[in-house]
Write a structure and sequence with these properties.
Layout (H helix, E strand, L loop, with lengths): L6 E5 L8 E3 L7 E8 L5 E3 L3 E2 L5 E2 L4 E7 L11 E2 L10 E2 L1 E2 L12 E8 L2 E8 L5 E3 L9 E2 L2 E3 L4 E8 L1 H7 L3 E3 L9 H15 L4 E9 L9 E6 L9 E9 L7 E7 L15 H18 L9 H4 L10 H12 L28 H12 L15 H13 L13 H7 L5
Parallel strand pairs: 1-19, 3-17, 8-9
Antiparallel strand pairs: 2-18, 3-16, 4-15, 5-14, 6-13, 7-12, 10-13, 11-12, 18-21, 19-20, 20-21
Helix pairs in contact: 3-5, 6-7
């Protein structure tokens, strides 16, 4: 998070009335990275390409020739220069002193090459004082190109990192990255999948439906400071991840923002100091999340406590949990579900093909809110039409991107008010 905001926005509601929830929809705690496994695959000689013409290279001149090779053949280096005194085989060219063969010439011509699509391009530069020819000693063209091909094809494999602590709270939330030809080892896939897990293993705090005074400068991705009309200030900066602008005749435009919470700014060295004000913010945010979800202070954990790959934070997590426990006062209990409405079953409950009467009730509420995308139904089996309908509901609430993927999260569920079945 940058140390300074791009803008300051003014909320129409009091800062104390803003509600922090968690973006469960964006949680990813099982991250997979496909990779190409080339173990045991080597290069072998491909089909030999020979020149059909003896080429003359005059002194001080450059001759460039293109030879067609197959697209699946690998890049190869320059031709090796043959010598009558020490003949070589394979990928080579001989320079002769006469068009009919003559004696072999070495030292006056340099050879370079490059790959240009289906062409192998060879450049000859004659630095000598006499002409030479690409010719064998018996008068035939001497250029012989031997491309290299793979001995077999790679095997497509997948490597995954996962976090069981996150899965215990939010169910298994899978993210599989797109396959890429550039990921060619298990080690690379390990690094990438772990980076994805670091970014998504836990939901991030979200402030939804933040009505602000209209400011045309606000853009997605801005970092903002939030104040209210009395001057009270939110104690953390936030990213703008959603914007909805409405306007009625004769009234000023109205902007509603979705703001994503921030991480703890630090160097990640395990030694950098944390100012007292920053520790106080960690305490307040942690207590707010625990209170919202009915957790105890034991749910507050640091990077270095759940993986050996992390060494931060440098402050005492035991001490921080003591501070959070003191702020909570008493062991919190889960907030009761409004009477007559179904409790949130968790994002992991919504699996394609699962049958439950609850899905019918969800679909009916989506239709009632004008977000139904059903050709038939809704019915008791969770399917694509339910996902499309719920995504429409999430967008109606101002969510965008991964926060509007059609899988229910707690904040959007509570707003839908699905009756008990």
């Amino acid at each position: 998070m940058p140390p300074r905001p791009d803008l300051t926005v003014t909320t129409r509601r009091s800062v104390s009335a803003l509600t922090v929830s968690e973006e469960i929809d964006a949680c990813r705690n099982y991250c997979q990275q496909p990779y190409a496994d080339w173990t045991g695959i080597t290069s072998v000689n491909g089909e030999t390409v020979t020149d059909t013409v003896v080429r003359k290279i005059n002194p001080g001149s450059v001759v460039e020739v293109r030879y067609a090779i197959a697209e699946d053949e690998n890049d190869i280096g320059p031709l090796q220069i043959d010598d009558d005194a020490s003949p070589i085989s394979g990928h080579k060219v001989r320079f002769g002193s006469a068009a009919t063969g003559g004696t072999s010439v070495k030292g006056s011509v340099t050879v370079s090459s490059l790959r240009d699509g289906p062409d192998y391009v060879v450049r000859f530069i004659n630095h000598g004082t006499a002409a030479v020819w690409t010719v064998t000693k018996d008068g035939n063209p001497s250029v012989q190109i031997i491309p290299q091909v793979r001995s077999g094809q790679s095997k497509q494999r997948t490597f995954a990192w996962y976090n069981t602590t996150s899965q215990a709270y939010y169910g298994k939330q899978v993210y599989e990255a797109s396959a890429s030809a550039w990921v060619q080892s298990r080690q690379s896939a390990d690094t990438l999948s772990h980076a994805m897990l670091d970014a998504g293993r836990f939901p991030v705090p979200v402030l939804g439906e933040v009505e602000v005074l209209h400011d045309p400068r606000i853009q997605l991705g801005d970092v903002v400071r939030v104040v209210d009309v009395t001057g009270a200030e939110l104690d953390t900066l936030a990213w703008v991840v959603g914007i909805r602008t409405t306007c009625q005749a004769g009234a000023a435009p109205q902007q509603t923002l979705t703001l994503r919470g921030t991480a703890i700014e630090n160097l990640g060295t395990g030694k950098d100091p944390y100012p007292a004000a920053q520790l106080a913010s960690v305490e307040r945010v942690s207590a707010a999340l625990c209170r919202a979800h009915g957790w105890s202070a034991a749910s507050v954990i640091g990077h270095k406590e759940w993986t050996r790959r992390k060494i931060d934070p440098s402050f005492s997590m035991s001490g921080m949990r003591t501070r959070v426990e003191a702020r909570l006062g008493v062991r919190p209990v889960p907030a009761p579900t409004p009477e007559g409405f179904a409790p949130f079953p968790g994002a992991g409950f919504f699996v394609t093909g699962r049958r439950s009467d609850l899905f019918t009730a969800v679909g009916r509420r989506l239709v009632a809110e004008g977000c139904g995308r059903y050709h038939v139904g809704p019915g008791p089996v969770w399917g694509e039409a339910d996902v499309l309908s719920y995504a429409a509901w999430q967008r109606e609430l101002g969510h965008v991107g991964a926060a509007a993927d059609g899988i229910p999260g707690r904040a959007s569920w509570d707003r839908l008010r699905v009756p008990h079945t």
